[in-house]
Amino acid sequence: MSKDEVVTPHVLIFPLPLQGPVNCMLKVAELFAIKGLRVTFLNTFHIQNLLLKHTNVQFRFDNYPEFHFETIPDGLSEDHPRSSDKLLDLADGIEEVMKPLFKEMLIYGKMSSKSSRPVTLIIADGGYTFPVDIAKDIGIPVLYFDTISPCALWTYFCLPTLIELGEVPFKEEDYDRRVTGVGGTENFLRCRDLPSFFRTSDLNDRPLHALYKSIQLSAEKASPDANFSNSLWEDDKSCMAWYDRVTIEKTVREVMEDKKDEFEKSSSMMAKLARQSVGDQGASSHSHFNRLVEDIRMMRLSTHSS
Fold first, then answer.
1. Exposed/middle/buried for residue 112 (C-beta within 10 Å: 0-12, 13-18, 19+)
2. pTM (2 decimals)?
3. Which residues neighbour 285 within 8 Å (Cβ) at sequence distance 6 or greater?
4. Are 70 and 42 in contact (CB under 8 A)?
5. What's the CA gap between 49 and 59, in Å, rounded?
6. Could you report the per-residue pLDDT of 238-260, keeping only the tens digit for each?
7. What is the secondary structure of 211-242 as a DSSP string?
8. Alpha-carbon dihedral sign for residues 260, 261, 265, 271
């Protein structure tokens, strides 16, 4: 491929290997696929196996000829539980194994500028820090896509302020103390509402330190029957037995009877706003997405001789 040759736009979507981020980014990937863009979705081997086993993902994306899955190791053994209390192991695997392989894949592999399907844009989960450096090295743009809720994201980004104010870290006896360092939540946010890893006596605690470092980097570099479940795990249909039936009935009755009018008014308003934002051709979300698609189509990949 010669220098400055225009190639077909090709989006690489790279989620964190966790159920929530993967499900969220699959929806974004499908929207791109519907628009006819060439899309590669990069999963870990472990996540991809779970998707194939417990969801209809293969059937769902077979309708899009320009959509492809690729896999990459997460650095953990097959029998590793990958549970929430072992997330630091996953972080180590990402840094030690996934990061160098990701770089190799984009520089020398099937998605490099030397291949027949070079990537022209990376959309990476906001939880990663390394894609921006790799993208910069090889000369392609990268967008960060945060899959956590806006309120959680805002709280994370306020961590430096919380530390500066002495509100993090905090002790158990401070659980009911109001938090003032997260703008817009001063009247109701308490220490107990903050993420669990904020509850430490040591600022050098690994999860807290990793998040703080990630925020600093982000600031510096910002620019039979088909199974339609979104769960990566086998459905446990016995879960209702875990709950207190009386409590459930009381809650449902309160919502559907005592607060029926309030509930209907609120849900109608939310539905209207959603339709206006997404469904209408001139709505903000619809317009912004179409503009993003057009920007992606106009992107060019300039290859450089080695």
1. middle
2. 0.73
3. 277, 278
4. yes
5. 15
6. 554 545 556 656 666 666 667 67
7. HHHHHHHHHHH----------SS---TTGGGG
8. positive
